[in-house]
TrEMBL record:
Domain of life: Bacteria
InterPro entries per record: LemA-like_dom_sf (IPR023353)
Keyword check for Transmembrane: yes
Protein name: LemA family protein
Transmembrane regions: 6-25
Keywords of the record: Membrane, Transmembrane, Transmembrane helix
SUPFAM superfamilies the record matches: LemA-like
Length: 178
């Protein structure tokens, strides 16, 4: 009796098993990348909200002239209330408004003597730096997820499911110079 057919069956079972393990690994990796994008987006949103809150605090602190306070408060309010379509533009406007405020002659000197002013400036500097880092982490996560979704296996087998293709978050993030 010849048992060659058993070896053939075991070989094909092993091949199917290994292909299944690989496909499962790729699907799990893609899922983790999408979770990473969502987590990075939540961190970016938190950093943006914090920056807008500190900008509103600065505008309401009575440490700025009324016109500058109004411009800064308007930009911060627009950034906090913008819908998804206008969010990048509103956040860029807030970045430019913050730079315009900080770049005013004598700005830092006016705040140096006041305890609450120096504290607000430190908070603003920290919030602006966090936005830069959070945007960088988010865009890196998006790039990794998009690269994974371009792979042939992911496209042939719908391993991404119905998850939308993540998009980059492009804003003017040059922090103000204190």
């Amino acid at each position: 009796m010849s048992y060659d057919w058993i070896i053939d069956v075991l070989f094909w079972v092993a091949v199917v098993f290994l292909v299944g393990v690989y496909v499962s690994w790729r699907a799990t990796r893609l899922d983790r990348l999408h979770v990473r994008v969502e987590t990075a987006r939540a961190a970016l949103d938190a950093a943006l909200v914090r920056r807008a809150a500190v900008a509103l605090e600065l505008a309401a602190s009575r440490l700025l002239d009324p016109a500058t306070s109004l411009v800064l408060a308007t930009a911060a309010h627009e950034a906090r209330t913008a819908d998804a379509e206008r969010r990048e533009f509103a956040e860029s406007d807030l970045s430019r408004a913050l730079r315009a405020v900080v770049d005013q002659p004598g700005f830092a000197a006016a705040f140096a003597g006041r305890a609450d002013g120096a504290e607000t400036l430190e908070e603003l500097a920290a919030a602006a730096a966090k936005v830069v880092y959070a945007r960088s982490f988010y865009n890196d996560a998006v790039a990794a997820a998009r690269a994974a979704r371009r792979r042939l296996l992911i496209r042939v087998l719908p391993l991404a499911g119905r998850a939308p293709l993540p998009g980059f978050f492009e804003i003017d993030v040059e922090p103000p110079r204190f």
